[in-house]
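hey can u run this one w/ pyridoxal-5'-phosphate bound, need the structure tokens asap thx
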Amino acid sequence: MNKIYFDNAATTALRPEVIDAIVESLRNDFGNPSSTHAYGRSAKSSIELARKSIANLLGCTANEIIFTSGATEANNWIIRSAVRDLKLQRIISSKMEHHAVLYAVKEIAQEYGIELVFVDNDKNGHINLQQLAELLQDKKQTLVSLMHINNETGCILPIDEVAQLIKENGAYFHSDTVQSVGKLKIDLQQTPVDFITASAHKFHGPKGIGFAFFRKGLLTNPIFFGGEQEKGLRAGTESVHNIVGMQKALELAYERHDEEKAHITELKSYFISRLREVYGESAHIHGHENTLYNLVNVGLPISQEKASMLLFMLDMKGFAISRGSACQSGSPKPSHVLAEMLDDETIKFPNLRVSFSHDNTREEIDLLVSELQKL
Ligand code: PLP
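ok here u go:
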């Protein structure tokens, strides 16, 4: 049976070079980075080299990067510490955010008794920037939290424009950049965003590791209390091999970016042309003109009966595909993201989220399309 992986927005396969770097670190760098002897110093130096390399790629300084267990932790930490330490009166966000932000802003706003406002969006996943600008005019102490790339639809926020607007109005800007780090080059020197987050497993690195970027001076209080790791801001022995693996994964993503982007972009447009051949205009490509080059979220003109079997049938044939975010994949409820974008008729069409990587091929797309044709 074929085994075809089209779920790269959920997670990605580790690159062989990343596995090698991790194994090498596990084998040779097992010292506790807090120990003062040579073993400890070596592990500590690996962490600091990784921090420098990552900071360099993103255009920030090494002390603005804090390693975390992943993006859920980083998003929660940023939102909580911003509300608490920057004395916020309000959070502005969107109902299309990943739950790692959506549930966090709801909980934290309630806990601290501050205002929470959601900006509107249109059917293509564009955030209403006019409304955002109007909201910001009152100059309340505000954190705006808007994701760069939506993990279900691939919809892109014009991050530079949004960052500029927020800065001009004296508010703070957090962007969940989990789906863009490693795929789009973010330059933190040019884009005045205050906080971003990343997760290595989304760019062919290991799971359980990510980072938060806090613009200088904006992070003052720890997330956990304990040891002095991460300058006392995040206590707990560092996951050295995962940090090294993340560094390698990001370096390779940057090194191979142009060539891989061209390949994946070509796959995406081939897939869309095949969908058009089979379904014509009755296949709804959600957010079409406004999506990242690696993802197609398509509503298919098939009956609900067939739809309920769709993922199961594709799984049986060896295709790994999902409908929305991995944490919701088993749920019969429609995606909260599509529910915000689509009208009552369009949302009835069963959808698939097909997300590509550099490893995919046209032949794999042909196999998928021929399975869909059998429905
Ligand atoms: N934010 C987005 C946009 C995501 O796609 C994900 C991953 O599913 C997360 C946050 C959570 O990241 P992590 O798996 O590192 O906790």
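Residues 243 and 369 are 38 Å apart (CA to CA). anyway lmk if its weird
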